[in-house]
Amino acid sequence: MAAAPDALVLRATKLRTGSACALKCIFCPALAARGAASPQAPRTYPKEAYIAFVEPFILSHVLHEAVVPLLGTVACPNGLTDSTAPPLVERTAPATTASLPQKQHQQRRWFPSSSTFYAIELPWFARDLQNAAATGRVGASDAAAIATQLFSALAYLHRRGVVHRAVAPWNIRLAGACSVVLAGFSAACTPDGDAAFVPPLPAVPASHWAPEQHAPGTAPHSAAEWARCDVWAAACVVAELLVGTRGCPLFCPRLLRAMVLGHDHLTQLLERRPGLRARYPITACLRAAQAAEASAPAVAAAAARAPAAAEQQSRRALEAPVVVDEEALCQLVGCRTGGSEQALEVARVVVRALAVEPRARPSAEAVVEQLAGLGGAALARQPWCADSKHKGRSVPEWTPISFVALHRFAVRHCGFLFK
User: Fold this and answer.
1) Alpha-carbon distance values, 124 to 5, 12, 175, 287, 317 (Å)
2) Torsions phi, psi for 141 (to 5 deg)
3) Alpha-carbon distance 329 to 350, whole Å?
4) Cβ(259)–Cβ(266) under 8 Å?
5) Does the model's pTM come out above 0.85?
6) Cα 53 from Cα 48, distance rounded (Å)
C-alpha cells in the first residue's frame, strides 16, 4: 500500500484582496524517498508517488455548494520554509522547518524536484462541526438543513464514482448558522479505478467507521460498498446532533465490533463494561433483530458464493443481528429536543441509514429525497459565501483517475517537475 502524503494546513491572507484562505501544503514521502537514494541519478517515479495529487485532482473536477472548492494551487520551491513563501499569500501561522514532522525536515534537502512541496488553496472556515457541537452552537433544530447538505454532497460525489471515506464532524466545516461544507478529501478516491491511486485511510479515531469496517474479512472494496460506509458515517454525524452528544461520537470501535458479531456479543460487552451505557446513550436503542429482519439477502449471497460461506453466514444470522430501534431513537431524540416534530422526522430518516447490514442502507440520494420535505432543502440551497470564487466557477468534464490524468494535472496545475 502506498504511503499517505503528509500535509500541513495553514491559515493565510491573500495579498491582493486581504481575505483569509487555507493553504494545505502536501508532501509526498514516496517522491522524497526516491530522490534521497541518489540525487543525481535519473528518477523513475512509481504510480504510488502520484497519490499526493489525488485530492486536488478530485476537488478540481467537482462543483457543489456543500463540497469545499479548490480555489487554486501554489508551487512551493524548495519546500515551505521561512525563506521561501508562496507568492500569492502571506502566512499568518508559523511554518518553519522546526514545526514540520521530523521525517520531512530530514528529507527536505533531498527533494527530487523544486516542487515536491506544493499547496492547494481552499476557503478558510474557522469552525468545524465537532467544535460547534461541543460548545452547543449547533442543535437539533439545524439537523434537517445540515443533513440535507451533507447527504446531497455525498450523493453528488457518489454519482461520479468518488467516495469520501473520512466523513466525520472534524471534516465538516461550518460556513454559516445552518450551512456546512464537506472537506478533508485526503482519503477520497475512486475505488473502481486503479488500486495504486487509493490513499490509505487516515490515522484518526475509527468511531465513524461503518460496522463492516471493523469486522474481519468484510472490509469494503468497491465504490458501492464504500458509498454505504459514507452513508453510515454521515448518519452518525446527524444522529450526534439529534441525540446531543456535544462533540462525542455516537459509537466506539469496541461497540461496533460487538454489533457486527451479534446481539449476544453486544450483551456480554455491556455486562463486562457497564460504563458504556452511560457514555454512549445509543446503546439504549440497540436491540436484537426479529426473525423477519435477519440478514436473508446476505445469507443468499453467501450461498451463491460458496457453501462454506453460506454455513458461516447462517450461524452468524442465528446470533440475532443488532439493529437500531426506530422508536427508541425517536424517544431519545424527543427527550433531548423537547419533542420537536422536525427532529423526530429527521431521526426516522437517519435510523434507516444506521442499518448494521450494509445492503439495508439507503443510498445518499434516497436519503436526500426523504429529507426534501422536512424543511432542510430550502436552507441547503443558500450559497455558503456570496463573494466566493465558488459561484460561477466551471469545472472540466470528469476524467477517471489514471496515471496519465494525474501526471498531466501535476505538471499543469501543481508546477511539478518530473525529471
Assistant:
1) 21, 8, 9, 42, 48
2) -65, -25
3) 10
4) yes
5) no
6) 10
Hey, what amino acid is at 155? A
> What is the identity of the amino acid at 33?
A
The tens-digit pLDDT sequence of the chain (419 residues) is 566 666 778 788 877 788 888 888 777 666 655 554 444 444 566 677 788 888 999 999 999 989 999 888 876 645 444 344 443 333 333 333 323 333 333 333 323 333 456 778 888 888 889 888 887 777 777 888 899 999 999 999 999 999 999 999 999 999 877 889 999 998 899 988 877 788 888 755 688 999 988 877 778 888 999 999 999 999 999 999 998 888 789 999 899 989 888 888 899 999 999 999 989 999 999 998 875 454 445 545 555 555 555 555 544 444 678 889 999 999 999 888 887 888 899 999 999 999 988 999 999 999 999 988 776 544 444 444 434 444 556 677 787 888 888 888 887 877 665 54
Q: Can you tell me the distance from the alpha carbon of 321 to that of 259, in angstroms, rounded to the nearest whole number?
A: 7
Cβ count near 275 (within 10 Å)? 8
Q: How many C-alpha atoms does 408 have within 13 Å on its Cβ side?
A: 7
3-state helix, strand, coil in the chain (%, to 5): 50, 10, 40
Residue 394's SS3 state is coil
Q: Is 7 helix (H, G, I), strand (E, B) or coil?
A: strand
3-state secondary structure of 341: helix
| Position 285, amino acid | C
CB 224 within 8 A of CB 257: no
Contact indicator for 306, 367 with CB cutoff of 8 Å:
no
Cα–Cα nearest to 200, from 45, 405, 5: 5
Tell me the CA distances in angstroms from 367 to 15, 188, 349, 352, 376, one per residue in order: 42, 21, 7, 9, 12
Cα–Cα distance measured from residue 160 to residue 183, given in angstroms and rounded to the nearest whole number: 17
Cell numbers for 177:
448558522
- The DSSP bridge pattern shows strands 322-324 and 6-14 to be unpaired
Distance between CA atoms of residues 333 and 141, nearest Å: 11
> Which position has the grid cell 422508536?
327
CA–CA separation, 157 and 190 (whole Å): 10
